[in-house]
Amino acid sequence: MTNLNKNYPIFRASLLEFEEKILQLARDSRLNLSDYEIDHLALRVNSEQSAKNWLTLLLKCGKIVSDNFINGRPIYLIELEHPVKFANQLIDIIELPFPKNKLYPAEGWEHIEIVIPFLVGESTNEWIERINMQFLWNKLTQLNIKVSEPKVEGERLSNPSIAVSFVDKTANHTCIKVHPYSIKKILEV
């Protein structure tokens, strides 16, 4: 079991449970997380008040590095003053999307995002095909795969996403998203 940073005791229990579920999803997805950079952790909430509460709490631990309007809602990126240890990596960015018109099965920690870069000269479609061939996720019936390309005003890099989650979300609602670029790379361009 990963030992989470002692600077954030308020997150410890919920992050431990989240980490266990992500590690289960990674095992079932044939994804060795130690082979890839975990870019950031993300929360999901169902109400504006919950989002405001989380934002207040996160701002006690770090600072806003981005507050873009993405897919019809504000999404905050908070850089933690002290990274948390998660799946044997140090993570210093937390994503907090404000709610849209969707209810999530559980509020709180929901997904991680990892980086698998484009190969030289690789198109978005070739990248998606390579990821699918590498992990054969589309052949694993217990998994749900969703490909998207979020549109963010002012961002110049295309950052497609492949999201992997369980079809049956009753026991494990978590998700692992794969991108070709880290969020810090996107922010600096």
Quick recap of the structure?
The chain has 189 residues and is an alpha+beta fold. It is built from four helices and eight strands; from the N terminus they run H-E-H-E-E-E-E-H-E-E-E-H. The chain starts with 8 loop residues before the first helix and ends with a helix.
Structure description:
- It holds the Pfam family YecM.
- This is VOC family protein.
- The chain is α+β, with helices and mostly antiparallel strands.
- It has a single domain, classed as Roll (2,3-Dihydroxybiphenyl 1,2-Dioxygenase, domain 1), CATH 3.10.180.
- Helix content is 26%, strand content 34%.
- The chain has four helices and eight strands; from the N terminus they run αβαββββαβββα.
- Strands 2-3-4-1-5-8-7-6 form an eight-stranded mixed beta sheet.
- A hairpin with a 2-residue loop joins β2 and β3.
- The termini are far apart.
- The model has no long low-confidence stretch (mean pLDDT 86).
The CATH class label is Alpha Beta
Can you tell me the CATH topology? 2,3-Dihydroxybiphenyl 1,2-Dioxygenase, domain 1
For the largest beta-sheet, the strand count, sense and barrel status come to: 8 strands, mixed
The percentage helix is 25-40%
Give the overall silhouette: globular
Q: How many domains?
A: 1
**Portion in strands:** 25-35%
Distance between the termini: 36 Å
Overall structural class, as computed from helix and strand content, comes to alpha+beta
With helices defined by DSSP (H or I, 4 residues minimum), what is the helix count? 4
Strand line-up across the major sheet: 2-3-4-1-5-8-7-6
Which architecture does the CATH hierarchy give at level 2?
Roll
| Model regions low in confidence, pLDDT < 50 over at least 5 residues | none
Looking at CATH, the homologous superfamily is 2,3-Dihydroxybiphenyl 1,2-Dioxygenase, domain 1
Mean pLDDT: 86
What is the H-and-E element order?
HEHEEEEHEEEH
Cα radius of gyration in angstroms: 16 Å
**Strand count:** 8
